[in-house]
Amino acid sequence: MKHLYLIVFLLFFAVGFGQSSQNQGDIEGFSMYPNPVTNGKVYITTANNAPKEIFVYDVFGTLILKTTILGKELSLNDMDAGVYVLRVFEKG
């Protein structure tokens, strides 16, 4: 029975202190459209509308494109059709 209490206590301790209450990965007001891209352009908007650093990866994790946009329009005309992952950074 003591082992059960120890396991419950350690589980509670791990869950309580293992998760941060701050959400540091989200960009406030983030929106990306259209998805899927139809005309070779994707629009990325945020609440701050600050310059954004964009990384585009293929499904294997290979970096395909690294660019910075000042507005909200990202041109993807030179890319082949496929599935990609976008990583967006704004203000660090």
From TrEMBL:
Signal peptide residue numbers: 1-20
Pfam families referenced in this protein's UniProt entry, alphabetically: Por_Secre_tail (PF18962)
InterPro entries: Secre_tail (IPR026444)
Positions of the Secretion system C-terminal sorting domain: 32-88
UniProt keyword terms in alphabetical order: Signal
NCBIfam families tied to this protein: Por_Secre_tail
Name recorded for this polypeptide: T9SS type A sorting domain-containing protein
